[in-house]
Amino acid sequence: MASSTLSLSLSLSLSLSSNKQQQQQQPPTPLSSFLPKPKFLHPPFNPKLISFSTPKIICASSSSSSSSSSQVMDPFVSPTQPLAPTVVDVDLGDRSYPIYIGSGLLNQPHLLQRHVHGKKVLVVTNNTVAPLYLDKVVHSLTTGNQSVSVESVILPDGEQYKDMDTLMKVFDKAIESRLDRRCTFVALGGGVIGDMCGFAAAAFLRGVNFIQIPTTVMAQVDSSVGGKTGINHRLGKNLIGAFYQPQCVLVDTDTLNTLPDRELASGFAEVIKYGLIRDAEFFEWQEKNMQALMARDPSALAYAIKRSCENKAEVVSLDEKESGLRATLNLGHTFGHAIETGVGYGQWLHGEAVAAGTVMAVDMSYRLGWIDDSIVKRVRDILKQAKLPTSPPETVTVNMFRSVMAVDKKVADGLLRLILLKGPLGNCVFTGDYDRKALDDTLHAFCKS
Amino acid sequence: MASSTLSLSLSLSLSLSSNKQQQQQQPPTPLSSFLPKPKFLHPPFNPKLISFSTPKIICASSSSSSSSSSQVMDPFVSPTQPLAPTVVDVDLGDRSYPIYIGSGLLNQPHLLQRHVHGKKVLVVTNNTVAPLYLDKVVHSLTTGNQSVSVESVILPDGEQYKDMDTLMKVFDKAIESRLDRRCTFVALGGGVIGDMCGFAAAAFLRGVNFIQIPTTVMAQVDSSVGGKTGINHRLGKNLIGAFYQPQCVLVDTDTLNTLPDRELASGFAEVIKYGLIRDAEFFEWQEKNMQALMARDPSALAYAIKRSCENKAEVVSLDEKESGLRATLNLGHTFGHAIETGVGYGQWLHGEAVAAGTVMAVDMSYRLGWIDDSIVKRVRDILKQAKLPTSPPETVTVNMFRSVMAVDKKVADGLLRLILLKGPLGNCVFTGDYDRKALDDTLHAFCKS
């Protein structure tokens, strides 16, 4: 009973914090001159797209001074007064959950522990991330909470291991460790780990709780949020999986300090996507701040992650199971998945393939007469700033594209639906109603027959 | 639009039929003298268990003469006026679905076709059932409906193939056939096929529609209803899966004509279970009619299937995800799963293991002083009548039981909860609050250390 009360009071203090406190949270090198005024509670993005529901988006942050009573009650708040996280809520009724974003969050055990169910935890990670952060996560899970036991399973790193054989290692470990339905899985890593751990949690004993701790930009801005989980099949990406929501997503931006440059840039492909499909203002901010992002400026990164999560949370709240709107988050992904499958999983990073795929989708949109050429140029320019590819590898042919795109999840009764830009910057459509010649022309413009 | 209207009018005609019509549906050799008066709409079973909700249980049947207008509108109604099915509804809000029960239902294409989504169907079956019924099912799916294309995948028959390698063959076939999200999977076979096809449908493209056509007593009275799907792990049964509901369950009782005696008896273990846990009147009916069931008397079989489905539907409607009540359907299953895993999958049929497990659970209940010895005797007697085992095989030791039971899905925070009988016939509890000595004594009474 005591711990429930504690958790409630902490949640309230996070949600009710003021704008003044939000500003106190800025990292040491503020880039506030780059940031648009905070006005997300009345978002400017395509009002027509959100007219059929009113999502709850909370973009509040709190300082540790927000409530002295919650500090007294909380045994985990350290005397050094750690920065409180920004919180973005994903509003899905009784499956709602918070995304915590901030620096040093893995040093604040109460954030993780309030979402752990049962007495046993299985951390799923890979051989790149484990040496860097596994001990820290175990410490965060167990500090002041000796009744929890933590097991871990370390998978090989890479998209080429996002398969059933590797997934079985998670089940093996869970069963050998005698985990029961009241356990919690924790995904510690990038998108591959999050997708696999989430699907394992969905299927183990027909469903156990799980927590996402994404450690790459790609996972922090996109894949850890929204409950899409799954694995690849040799014939196509993410063809086996489940919609399964986590208990929370914990984004400790400090984990980006160890991220290779190529992985960093890969994540920006998804950040750029949000701007193109629904948030022109964010795209314009990116055009001005891409150099700061590439230089890992902490406040620029924190803002890009927060704003991306807000966009993702809003779309997922409106269309969890991808009946329509959510599909727009896949701009460039149908082309991109074909590149990843065609060239071999793990050869190109997901964001690299999405970047080239986005250029192809934008090219096709222009051929259809749906956008003007200034958007085509701006897309190429920002991707080049991010050092991302703007065309597919030469080895992927038109026929390889056609073959992989035919098994894409967005095919319905034989018709391939695509996300294409249409109208001013920040607007897109999800449609199967387009001239097939434009698709053919795009494929032939970018690759060999 | 036309087909939607048609489907609605047919559904209504099924639900609104009269008792007189129900009697017309009786098979040629009526056993009406054995049957209790129909009063299931006001069920006598443990009212305390259903006090927190009011499930909708419809046990209506119709004759083809119930509505001439629906006959005129329906191109599939044959001139020989086939018997209309009994319908039991599983009430789960927007995931509700009907169970159709009757003779010759595979000859009534409209029953299946009204539940097929999209233009592509994948029938999942095994090498025993395919030669008997696959052509018939394909015919039923395509008669008068040329726009649907049907693929099939034939798996090896047996519990030992309920594993990930075999499941992957379903995904391979689905992807190679370019099935999309608007396809329908059809499970044609016993419990193993239903569980595997259901899990494949849950995970393929993160979820597609599916239909259950159970062809064994075990599947018709239990496993096809309620949405539990999954596969085995070498260390335990059904440890990987999903709760995923079908669009409908179609029980054509004619398929039992080809069922081997041993499979027939195996299914009766689950029928007996319903009587013991919640339906004393049904158990008493079984005591009088087990010989008729073993002799495959059509009306006795039809009644046992219907009443079992009504019990299952009621429990599933009240507790879909097994928070509590639904676990009672697993009487004897924790012991039984240990037998199946310990002796090797496929050596004992599921119902044989459940039968022996039920005797062990009843023995333990008696040791705890929760039931009197007359119930112990009646359970042994009815299982013997059904030619089912009343003790585990000699090769399964006390330690094997303990090891497998430790990973049972009903373990919570390390405590094994069991379904045990308590009180008069027809009452049970799901509890971890029992004297461990009674469990030890039962294990030692039935097997070697």
From TrEMBL, chains A, B:
Main localization of the protein described in the UniProt heading: plastid
Entry GO terms, CC: chloroplast
Start and end residues of each 3-dehydroquinate synthase N-terminal domain: 153-265
GO MF terms held by the record: 3-dehydroquinate synthase activity; metal ion binding
Documented EC number(s): 4.2.3.4
Reaction(s) this enzyme catalyzes, per UniProt: 7-phospho-2-dehydro-3-deoxy-D-arabino-heptonate = 3-dehydroquinate + phosphate
Cross-referenced Pfam families: DHQ_synthase, DHQS_C
Family that this chain belongs to: Belongs to the sugar phosphate cyclases superfamily. Dehydroquinate synthase family.
Protein name, entry field: 3-dehydroquinate synthase, chloroplastic
Organism for this UniProt entry: Crotalaria pallida (Smooth rattlebox)
